[in-house]
Amino acid sequence: MKIDLTDTTSSKINAALMDARRASGSTAAGMVLTLVIVTDEGSAYDALKAANDASREHPSRTLAVIKRAGRSPRARAETRLDAEILVGSDAGSGETVILRMHGELVAHAQSVVLPLLLPDAPVVVWWPENAPQHPAQDPLGAIAQRRITDAVTAESPVGQLAQRAASYTPGDTDLAWTRITGWRSMLAAALDQRPVEITSAVVAGESYNPSVELLGLWLTNRLHIPVERVVTGGPGITSVTLRTKGGDIVLDRPDGLMGTLSMPGAPDRQVALKRRETSELIAEELRRLDPDDIYAAAVRTPVDALKEPGTEAAAPAPVIEAAVAAPARVTAKVPAAGKPNAKRTTAKKAAPAEKAVARKAPAKRATKKAGS
After folding, report:
1. 123 and 33 in contact (C-beta within 8 Å)?
2. 99 SS3 class
3. At 86, which helix (H) or strand (E)?
4. CB atoms closer than 10 angstroms to residue 79
5. Rounded to the nearest 5°, which phi and psi values hold at 69?
6. What is the mean pLDDT of the chain?
């Protein structure tokens, strides 16, 4: 059943929902939560399709907030609320209300959403794109128990992780984290079967994929080991290698469909690691409404903790070598001859370092070398 309401109010929308429920023969709500989707016209179709598929596992009232401020001054001055109500097979296992807000109403979306929330039911807000910098401080995010973002849709997906870490509030989560659930489960199961000491790890995946970064940060945070980040052509995460003294544990997925788990002393095994649809990711996030402490610890780990290949070669020189080279750097600034005071001062500063090489070269030779 589909009902269109033009230039309406929240109370009229509630009344239309009750009438539609009675017409369909269902007087009880039977829904477990309210899912608020903040999106635009371009992303509304895909987001609503994913929410409707997820509602078969989590019957919910879905409120799609579409803000249409208007391009012209006249359009921005017109304040209007249009609603589209879907009940029955058109809305999955729940109810869907599409709210199109025009003009100044765009800045007060929470005033429209609040009367439409299910009583005594949790509220989840999802931004498929263009998430606010501080979801918990957003007017709609402030009324929710869980706030779902997606870093992969940002201009700088990896940089978005730093913003998520800075603004994290209990209840925040990101679909980039949800996408690595299968990888985390497989790696944890592999270590349960063969408890060994992990010395380092390598995470390979396509560039600018926040899920690859989060998986590396999770390994760094949980295992306290150095993790190397390798860029590949994808799709998504392609492999994870856990290095041990007895051999490498490798989870490889080159095609985005099936993975291969290789362990020392055991035959290779095929595991299911298919890249999941958005509806499956949303359904997983709706299964838990408590804060995700593991995600919080992973996203707060600095991305700089991941090493790129070849960083060892650019490492600074050891402290002992730097001490030996110090006299050459200091005496290179000695002025021209004719200023003995400055020369004596420079030699005095270099004296402690010269003592470090006194056993290997005479002092006279060291002074001659320093002045070259």
Report:
1. yes
2. strand
3. strand 80-87
4. 13
5. -65, -30
6. 82
Among candidate residues 250, 291, 249, 256, the one with its CA nearest the CA of residue 273? 256
Q: pLDDT tens digit string along 320-357?
A: 333 333 333 333 333 444 444 444 433 344 344 444 43
Look up residue 28 and give its two tokens. Answer: 């009880």
CA-closest candidate to residue 20, choices 5, 6, 41, 38: 5
pLDDT digits (tens, 9 = 90+) for 283-321: 999 998 899 999 999 999 987 777 766 554 334 333 333
Question: What is the average per-residue pLDDT within 218-232?
Answer: 94
Strand order in the sheet with 269-272: 269-272, 258-262, 247-252, 237-244, 198-206, 227-232, 306-307
| Cis amide linkage into residue 210, ω under 30° from 0 | no
Is there a contact between 127 and 186 (Cβ–Cβ < 8 Å)?
no
**String of DSSP letters for 233-244:** S-SSEEEEEEEE
- Neighbouring C-beta atoms of residue 132, cutoff 10 Å: 17
pTM of the full predicted structure?
0.79
Q: Residue 146 and residue 34: Cα distance in Å, rounded?
A: 11
What beta strand segments (E) does 108-175 contain? 123-126, 146-149, 172-174
* Contacting residues for 91 by C-beta, under 8 A, at least 6 apart: 52, 55, 62
- Dmax over Cα atoms in the chain, in whole Å? 106
- At 256 the pLDDT is 87
* Helix residue ranges, H only, the chain: 10-23, 41-54, 73-77, 109-113, 157-166, 175-178, 181-193, 210-223, 278-285, 293-299, 319-331, 340-356, 363-370
Q: Which residue has the tokens 């870490």?
A: 165
CA 84, CA 101: separation in Å to the nearest integer?
12
Q: Measured between alpha carbons, how far apart are the two ends of the chain, in Å?
A: 90
